Amino acid sequence: MRFHICLIGLVLGLAACSKQEAQDPRKILTRARIDAPATPLLLAEIEEIETVATLAKVALNKTVETWQTGDQVSLSLDQGLVTATRGLGEDLMSADNSGTKMMLAGQLADQYYVKLHSYLDGEYQTAFRSFQCRRSGLRQESIEIFERRHATTRIEELCVTPGYEITNVYWQGADGFLWKTQQWLSPSLKYLVTEQLFR
Amino acid sequence: MFSLRSVFIWGFALSAGQALADPLIETNYNSYGSPGLIDMPSAHSRPDAELAFTVSSFKNTRRSTLTFQMTPRFSGSFRYSNLYNIRGGTDPGSAINEFIFDRSFSVHYRFVDENHKWPAIAVGLNDFFGTGIYQSEYFVATKTFGSRFRATGGIGWGRLAGVGNFKNPLGYIHDGFFTRPGRQGAQGGTLEAQNWFRGDAALFGGMQYQANPKLLLTAEYSSDAYPQEDGASFDRKTPFNFGVTYKFRPNVRLSANYLYGSELGVQLSMALNPKNPPAFGGFGAAPPSIVLRGPKTAEQLGWDLPPERKPQVQSALASALIAQDLELQSFEVSGTTVHVAYVGTSSVQSAQDLGRVARILTSVLPTSIETFVLIPVVNGVRTSQITLQRSDLERFEYGFDGAWNSYAAALIEPAFDPVAPIAGFYPRFKPQIGAYLKPSFFDPEYPLLLDIGVEARATYEPVQGVVFRGAVRKKVIGNLNKSDRVSDSVLPKVRSETNIYDREGDPALTELTVSAYTQFTPDLYGRATFGYLEPQFGGLSTELLWKPIESRFAIGAELNYVQQRDYDQRFGFRDYSVLTGHVSGYWQLANGYHAQVDVGRYLAEDLGATFTLDREFKNGWKVGAFFTLTDVSAEDFGEGSFDKGLRFSIPINWISGEPDRQQFATTIRPVVRDGGARVEMAGRLYETVRGTHRAGLRDGWGRFWR
Fold this sequence. Notes:
The complex is a heterodimer. Chain A is mainly beta. Chain A has a single domain (9-198), classed as YmcC-like (YmcC-like fold, Beta Barrel). Chain A has helices at residues 9-12, 25-28, 31-35, 98-104; strands at 41-46, 51-61, 64-68, 74-78, 81-86, 94-96, 113-120, 126-145, 148-161, 164-172, 178-186, 190-198. In chain A, strands 5-4-3-2-1-12-11-10-9-8-7-6 form a 12-stranded antiparallel β-sheet. In chain A, a hairpin with a 5-residue loop joins strand 3 (64-68) and strand 4. Residues 1-21 of chain A have low confidence and may be disordered. By secondary structure, chain B is mainly β. Chain B has 3 domains: 21-272, Beta Barrel (Porin); 297-424, GMP Synthetase, Chain A, domain 3 (2-Layer Sandwich), CATH 3.30.300; 428-461 and 465-697, Porin (Beta Barrel), CATH 2.40.160. Chain B has 11 helices and 33 strands. In chain B, strands 21-22-23-24-25-26-27-28-29-30-31-32-33 form a 13-stranded antiparallel β-sheet. In chain B, strands 3-4-5-6-7-8-9-10-11-12-13-14 form a 12-stranded antiparallel beta barrel. In chain B, strands 15, 16, 17, 18, 19 and 20 form a 6-stranded mixed β-sheet that branches.
C-alpha cells in the first residue's frame, strides 16, 4: 500500500510518521489531544485502499482549502466538498460541485443537477465524468466525532453516470458546516470519508 | 418532482450502461501468439495497444511470441520457435534436423467489424519474411452467438492448406494463383510475396464457449498437416484440437490443449497495456499549493524585488525546487517579470515540472511580480520558454477546466530572452551510481541473455552548453558472456561481434565524451561530441537539427568520423574507422504515431535508408518497428537479408507510480548483423528538445496541476 497511514506529528506532538508501522490514528487520537493545539484537523478514510489519515490545512485559495498528510497526499475541499486529490493514484484532478452546493443550501429540492469530475486517463490526458445527481435522502442525525456530539442533517445524494451509480452522504450542521462527508472519488478508490475534528 | 427531462436522462444513463456491456466471451491468443483458437487464427482482435508475450509448448515444439496490437484492427507478432526433430523440408524423405531455431513475423488485420448480421472478418500473413517454415496466409470470419459462444471459419493457403486441400478458388480469377512457386530468398528476410494466397487452399474452423468469466473452452479443426513434423517430431493423427483456457488474472491466461489426437500442450500468455498504467496518475507527492496574494497588497505596496532581498528569495526558490527534484539555473527579476531557468527534462513530466515551478514562485515572490517566464534547460540547452500570468494561476488552480485554461493562457516560445546563470551554478558536477540491466534477445542460440550490474555515471558542465559525460559498468551477475558464436560476416564486423564486447567488457567504459550544445537561431540547434561515444565506437560526432517550436516536423543532419573500439572497452581502438552520417526527417503525427526516415552512410560503409514507425503513447510509452535497406546484398548481409527490429521505451514512472523522469529503452532484432548499423549514442538533439516544445508540452499538460 503506497498511501501510508501517517500522522501529522508536529501538529499533534505525537510520534513522527512512520511508514513501516502504519497506525490507525483513531486508536491514538483523543479529544484532549485534538483540542490542545487548537488547529483545524481533518480525518480522512478511504476504505477501498485501507487507509486512514489525519490531515492539516496547508493552503487556502478563495473557498478551497487544501489539506495534507505527513507523507504528502493532499485533499482539496471547497466548503467541505472534495474538489481535488493528489498522490492517491487514480486522483480526482478537479470537480464542479456547484449543483451539490445548491442542493445542500436547500435550493433544489428533488430536482436533478450535474456534478462533474475530471481525472487523468491512462495516457495522462484530462478526461471528464459527468453525473446526474439528485437528493435521495434527508433526515436528522446526531453524530459523534471523538467524544463530541453534533446535531446534523444527514443528506444523501445519488449520482449516476454510465457504468457507475454512487451515493454521497453529507452530515450538515445547522449553520451549513459539513462535519462529516462520504464522497466518491474514482473507480479504484471509491469513497472518501472526511470528519472535521476541530473547527 | 421528477421532470420528464430527468426521466429521460435516467433512462439514457441506464440503457447506455447496458449497451456498453461487451459479450462475455473473450478473444484468446493462439499457439502462434496471434488472436485465435488453438493453432488456428480467429477474426477478432485483442484490445488496442495490448502487448502480449505468449509461450506455447508441446512435444518437440516451443513457440515464444511477442504480439503488439498496433491499432484497434492491426496486430503484429514476432516469434521465436525451438523445433526439435524436424525435417529439413516438407518431403517425407527429407533429412531430420535434431534442432533448429526459427524466427518469424506475423500480421493480423481485421477489416470487417462484427455486427448483428455480419461476422468479424480478418486477413493474416504468417512467416512472411522468415525462413518460411510457418509460411501461410488466411482469411477468417468469426461470429458471436449470445454472449458466450463463438464460431470461426476460414480459408488458408501455404501451411494452412495441408488438410482437405482443394484447388485455389482465386485461380479462377487469375491462373497464377493455382501454383505456389516456393521460397526464393535463401537467407530469409525477403518478403516472399510471390507465394501469397497461391497454391492449394483449405478450410479450417472452430468453436469457443466461455463457460464462466475465467474459463474458455475451444475446439478446432486444423488445416495444418505439420508436414515437417508429422512422423518425425510427433505423430499427427487427427485434425482436431481441444483446449481449456483459464484466466488467472485479467492479463494472465494458461491453456491446456489436446493436440492432433496424440499430444498434450500448454500455453501461457501474459499481457500488459501501455494505456493502463498500474498506478494511474501516480503516487508522487502532492504539489506545492498556490499562495494567494492579498486582494489589495500589490497596489498598496507597489514594490518590486529590492536587490538586498534577492539572495534570500533566490535561496528559498532554489531549495523549493530541489524538493521537486529540479535545480535552479537562473533567476532574474525586472519590474513585474521574473525569468526562472531550471534544469529539467524533455519528458512526459515536463508540463508537471512547469506547474510545480510556477506554484513555488507564488510562495516566494513579492506580490507585485505578475509575469513568470519559465525556461527548462536540457543538456545545457534552453529548449523553450513558457510565460504564465500569476493571476491566471491563482484563478485556475482549482478551476474545473484548469488544465486546459492554463494551457490556453500559456505562451510557449523559443527561449530568446538572455538570462545569466546564477553565480556558482557552473561548474556543475553530478555523479550518479545505480544498477543497470542489459538484455540480449533472440541470439540465435540463446533466446534471452541478461547482465545485471553496477553503473557509475557522471556529468560535468564547466559552462552552460558544454557537457562531459562518463559511464563505467561492472557486471555483477549475468550470462551475456555465454554467446560465443563467431561472426561469419563478409562485411566489416561493425555489430556482429557485439557478443565479444559483451564478454570482454568487464568492467567497461561505455561512454566518455565531451559535447558542446548550441542554438544558432530559435529553430536551429547544433551539437558536437568527441570521445568514446558508445561501447563499440569512438570519435567525433556533429549534428544540426532544425526544429521550430510549433512544428511537428524536424530535419536533422549528423556527420561522424568514428573508429572501432577495442573489445575490452577501455581506451584502445581497433583498425577500422569510417565516416558515417545521416540526414534524418522526423514527423510527429497527430494520431499518436511518429515516423522517422534516416538516409545516409552506415557503419559498414553501406549506403541506404532506415524507416521507423513508432506508436507513441502520451504517457511516454513507445513501441516501434524499423527496417533498413542498404546497398548490401541479401547474400552479403547474411541471415535475415536486411536489418530490422522492434524498439520499446518504457517510462519508469509508469511502472512504479513514483516520480521519475527516466525511460527504459531496448531494441530487439531477430539477428544482429553488420549491414545498416548506426552509431548509438546519448544526447542527440531531437529527444533533447522536443519534450519541451509545443506538441510535447501539450501532450503532458494534463499533469500541469498534478
